[in-house]
């Protein structure tokens, strides 16, 4: 499947290419009509039909079904849509979080209006068309379509229609949608009723929500993500309290929340696999964030092991269950030992049942990777009861020589995305991998953003190296973000967009930054030089050769006037 085939300006020439062998067949029929007798003509026409059919089969896959590399940009619903209480939308945990005494967000702002994308989605799609991207990653707001989070609480048809309209507009402009089901905006009702992701009661509700979206959008959306960056909303939202819902428990809750969301992911994946994939032919994955970690002391074996351990406690915390069916052994051993040393009767890391392990294993059609920065790891024995960070026995730092950005946590390390992709590809048998986010921030939102151009040039160059030189199966790249937006706890003080938004203007006008123009030109060049190959595969060549031989044999039979 390639939604690019839906673009009118590209569909017609591809159809012509696909049916070129049929034109050849018609030419042959016309030629054969002049044969000496009708019997010979009918024999030759029949054989020619077989031959051309074989050639048609051989040529069609190479010319008509090759998937293009996904070049796109990404956003999330809460950060850009606004319209927080419009058309029946329910409240999310973020709608409540930003209203807590004005202390949770850096500039005391909210995303009540944000970029007004709920109203301006057609304008946003035209921006995407200007950029020349062939795909767009967005998220669906759970409380916009299910205001109370459950089917029993009622479906908001106006909310669903917004996403139907967005998807239709994307496809009408030759842009393939990639939809994220959960980008942190949990319906507040579910948080209030049973603490949201802290309770396994949430699992069937998430599956119901996923099913509803597959039913309503699955005929048009062929790329799905269940969760965006579970590490972030788990550790920052339930461990440190810096994000919604503001819970502070690194000892137990972070592990419980992660356990529940992984179980929900697996059930949603299996639901799609069984009930929707046979007809819709889409792909479902999960997108994870993390850093490629280097040893602080490259001569220290303990630091080298700490670097690997750090990635297992971030990436593999989620990806090992998805690909292998269980948590990394290093995590199970360390957390188990620390739990025992603290006098606990069992490990603070929950266990999957045998059924859950089977359901989880292989529950992803592609690896979604959000990548920004790297870090250094130093081995150090920490406490037994301090929770997630102490469980790792690692002190994490950054090299002061690495260039900075508008975000303290984001140092510019282009090599990291290459090495991170290599590490993940080696660990998980080189799965299809989509870079679902990659970008850099500043603090002024300037449109003259040469620093962002440099960032993208260097990072994309390293992605390309991972793909071409190291043969990692990278199939897509999404720049974060399409436009400046509400940057969670940082409010409107950090800007990641390649399109500027004037948040002082009620209309929220958009302006292409220099980086958007650079990305546009870069994509255009890439699509020209990396167009889907039309050279037939080996099997196709064999089939075509058989067609030619069949035709020659038929001609010999006809000339010899042998019985047919």
TrEMBL record:
Sequence intervals crossing the membrane: 538-560
Reaction catalysis annotation: beta-D-glucosyl-(1<->1)-sphing-4-enine + H2O = sphing-4-enine + D-glucose; beta-D-galactosyl-(1<->1)-sphing-4-enine + H2O = sphing-4-enine + D-galactose; Hydrolysis of terminal, non-reducing beta-D-glucosyl residues with release of beta-D-glucose; beta-D-glucosyl-(1<->1)-N-octadecanoylsphing-4-enine + H2O = N-octadecanoylsphing-4-enine + D-glucose
Keywords carried by this UniProt record: Glycosidase, Hydrolase, Membrane, Transmembrane, Transmembrane helix
Signal peptide: none
InterPro entries in the record: GH, GH_1_N_CS, Glyco_hydro_1, Glyco_hydro_1_AS
Annotated Pfam families: Glyco_hydro_1
PANTHER family assigned to the protein according to its UniProt record, in alphabetical order: GLYCOSYL HYDROLASE (PTHR10353), LP05116P (PTHR10353:SF36)
Identification of the protein by name: Cytosolic beta-glucosidase
Organism: Macrostomum lignano
Classification lineage: Eukaryota, Metazoa, Spiralia, Lophotrochozoa, Platyhelminthes
């Amino acid at each position: 499947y390639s939604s690019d085939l839906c673009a009118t300006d590209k569909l017609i020439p591809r159809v012509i290419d696909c049916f070129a062998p049929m034109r050849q067949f018609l030419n042959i029929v016309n030629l054969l009509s002049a044969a000496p007798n009708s019997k010979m003509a009918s024999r030759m026409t029949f054989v020619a039909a077989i031959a051309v059919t074989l050639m048609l089969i051989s040529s069609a896959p190479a010319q008509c079904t090759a998937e293009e590399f996904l070049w796109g940009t990404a956003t999330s619903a809460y950060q850009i849509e606004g319209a927080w209480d419009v058309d029946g939308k329910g409240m999310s945990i973020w709608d409540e979080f930003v209203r807590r005494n004005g202390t949770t967000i850096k500039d005391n702002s909210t995303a009540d209006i944000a970029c007004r994308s709920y109203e301006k989605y057609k304008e946003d799609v035209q921006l995407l068309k200007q950029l020349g991207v062939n795909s767009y990653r967005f998220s669906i707001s759970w409380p916009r379509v299910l205001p109370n989070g459950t089917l029993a609480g009622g479906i908001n048809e106006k909310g669903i229609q917004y996403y139907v309209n967005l998807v239709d507009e994307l496809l009408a402009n030759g842009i393939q949608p990639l939809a994220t089901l959960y980008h942190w905006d949990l319906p507040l009702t579910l948080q209030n009723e049973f603490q949201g992701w802290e309770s396994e009661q949430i699992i069937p509700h998430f599956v119901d929500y996923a099913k509803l979206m597959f039913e309503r959008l699955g005929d048009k959306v062929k790329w799905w993500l269940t969760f965006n960056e579970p590490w972030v909303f788990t550790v920052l939202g339930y461990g440190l309290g810096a994000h919604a819902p503001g819970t502070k428990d690194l000892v137990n809750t972070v592990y419980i929340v992660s356990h529940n969301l992984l179980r929900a992911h697996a059930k949603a994946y299996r639901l799609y696999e069984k009930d929707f994939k046979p007809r819709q032919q889409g792909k479902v994955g999960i997108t994870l964030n993390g850093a490629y970690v280097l040893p602080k002391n490259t001569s220290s074996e303990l630091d080298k092991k700490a670097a690997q351990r750090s990635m297992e406690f971030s990436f593999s915390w989620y990806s090992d269950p998805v690909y292998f069916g269980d948590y990394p052994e290093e995590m199970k051993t360390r957390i188990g030992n620390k739990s025992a040393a603290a006098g606990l009767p069992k490990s603070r890391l929950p266990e999957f049942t045998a059924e859950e392990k089977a359901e989880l294993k292989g529950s992803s059609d592609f690896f979604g990777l959000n990548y920004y920065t790297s870090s250094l790891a130093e081995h150090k024995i920490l406490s037994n009861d301090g929770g997630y960070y102490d469980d790792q026995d690692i002190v994490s730092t950054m090299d002061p020589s690495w260039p900075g950005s508008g975000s303290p946590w984001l140092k510019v390390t282009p090599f990291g995305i290459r090495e991170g992709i290599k590490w993940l590809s080696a660990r998980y048998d080189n799965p299809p991998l989509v870079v679902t986010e990659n970008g850099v921030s500043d603090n002024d939102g300037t449109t003259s953003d040469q620093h962002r151009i440099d960032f993208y040039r260097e990072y994309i160059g390293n992605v390309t190296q991972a793909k071409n030189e190291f043969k990692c199966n990278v199939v897509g790249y999404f720049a974060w973000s399409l436009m400046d937006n509400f940057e969670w706890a940082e409010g409107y003080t950090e800007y990641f967009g390649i399109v500027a938004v004037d948040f002082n203007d009620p209309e929220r006008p958009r302006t292409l930054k220099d980086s958007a123009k650079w990305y546009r030109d870069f994509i255009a060049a890439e699509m020209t030089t990396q167009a889907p190959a039309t050279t037939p595969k080996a099997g196709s060549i064999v089939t075509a050769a058989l067609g030619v031989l069949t035709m020659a044999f038929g001609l010999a039979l006809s000339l010899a006037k042998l019985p047919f």
